[in-house]
Specification:
Blueprint: H1 2-23, H2 26-48, H3 57-68, H4 82-85, H5 93-104, H6 106-126, H7 133-155, H8 161-184, H9 187-211, H10 216-234, H11 254-258, H12 267-278, H13 281-299, H14 303-321, H15 332-335, H16 341-370, H17 373-399
């Protein structure tokens, strides 16, 4: 079972490495660096305004730390076929799950280090906690996360969903008590309570697992759900074959489609808009990037950084929509339409230009709240120039081989 886990883990890392080349592109990394720099600048200015401990600092940290425990799930890497081929090895599968639990603890631990390091200046200024207390908080969070992973492992063996929900509520209640003791009393007290809770859990687990039967469908469903969340994140940057698009009626969008009906020259315009509005893959991708970009611009204090990020997000959305041009290539009936290929390219350009214009308008509305009129006008002009360059210059060159 250890060899099977290592094999699955190598395959998983290989797959994630392939997708990482499309996620961590040059433009995305530039946007991340600019965003981190802007947040650090705003964070530094915020710390300069704090001259005494804040009453809401510890309650805020308590809520944040409890929320951080939701980062990371048990990664079992199970597949649908395992319900048949691994069934004879069910008893030996516990070794596989223990290796998966240890692996699943690494990512949350790294995330805890980053967050505690970022919160260290705020903790030193806004609370009476010593900087060394962050080390104790890290131990508390790792211990609690370890216990949560054990409960997620047990959930694969429990056939009573109601009991699983009760355990989940009880865990967050205990976690809140342990973290509160760490913040208001001492991190050492929190470590002691976490160790006691972990010890009690370890006493319960062997007796439960000795007679428990693996719920194969539940275990595979939980892993598929975890991977689906990961694929949706990757799908923000590139196509993911594991995500199958769905079609929704969306009758409330029919008035938009009627604008293209009955016009021979707008045949492909109607097809592209119809597929975009009723599909889930590209519409979801567009909306997610639109919301993420708007939220980031809302928190950027410097207008020129916001302008640069807005242009980058326009490029990201346009770049991710390029594969949408090929959506009808495998439909033989489309090739029989008495419509020239140039009409297809122009229709696609008009669709993307309209979507980018909507995105630019929403970004401009966000910037209108926090920018002066002159800076806002510069932002609008630059965003419009970026949209025109993308749709009038860049896209025709990318689509040229299709002519």
């Amino acid at each position: 079972m250890k060899q099977l886990w290592q094999q699955r883990l190598r395959q998983h890392h290989k797959q994630m490495l392939k997708y990482s080349r499309y996620v961590f592109t040059e433009f995305f990394m530039i946007a991340i660096f600019i965003f981190v720099g802007a947040v650090a600048y705003s964070y530094s200015n915020l710390l300069d305004t704090i001259h005494a401990p804040l009453w809401w600092a510890k309650p805020g940290l308590l809520i944040l730390f409890v929320a951080l425990l939701s980062v990371g799930r048990l990664a079992t890497l199970l597949q649908d076929a395992d319900t048949l081929f691994l069934l004879p090895k069910e008893r030996a599968l516990l070794t596989y799950f223990l290796a998966a639990r240890r692996y699943s603890l690494w990512l949350p631990s790294l995330f805890f280090v980053i967050m505690l390091g970022a919160l260290l200046p705020f903790q030193a200024v806004a609370t009476n906690l010593a900087p060394s207390g962050s080390l104790g908080l890290f131990v508390v969070l790792v211990a609690l996360k370890d216990g949560q992973l054990w409960l997620q492992l047990v959930a694969n063996y429990d056939d009573q969903p109601q009991r699983i929900r009760q355990w989940r509520v009880l865990f967050y209640l205990v976690a809140a008590i342990v973290i509160a003791a760490s913040l208001w009393i001492s991190p050492l007290v929190g470590i002691g309570l976490a160790v006691v809770a972990e010890f009690g859990l370890r006493l319960y687990l062997p007796r439960f697992l000795a007679s428990a039967v693996l719920q194969w469908r539940t275990a595979v469903k939980n892993e598929n759900s975890r991977m689906l969340q990961l694929y949706r994140l990757i799908n923000l940057f590139t196509d993911v074959p594991q995500l199958s698009g769905k079609v929704h009626r969306r009758a409330y969008l029919d008035p938009v489609l009627r604008l293209f009906k009955g016009n021979h020259q707008r045949t492909f315009g109607y097809l592209y808009l119809h597929e975009f509005l009723r599909g889930t893959e590209y519409l979801g991708l567009y909306l997610r990037l639109l919301v993420i970009g708007a939220v980031i611009l809302w928190f950027i204090p410097l207008w020129w950084i916001a302008t640069l990020l807005g242009a980058i997000f326009l490029y990201l959305v346009g770049f991710q929509l390029l594969p949408f041009y090929q959506i009808f290539n495998e439909n033989l009936l489309v090739h029989l339409y008495p419509v020239p290929l140039t009409n297809k390219i122009q229709s696609f350009q008009h669709l993307v230009q309209g979507l980018l214009m909507i995105q630019a308008v929403i970004f401009a509305l966000v910037m209108l709240v926090s920018s002066s009129l002159s800076h806002w006008l510069i932002f609008v002009v630059i965003e419009l120039v970026v949209v025109l360059l993308l749709t009038r210059v860049y896209f025709p060159r990318r689509l040229q081989p299709e002519k």
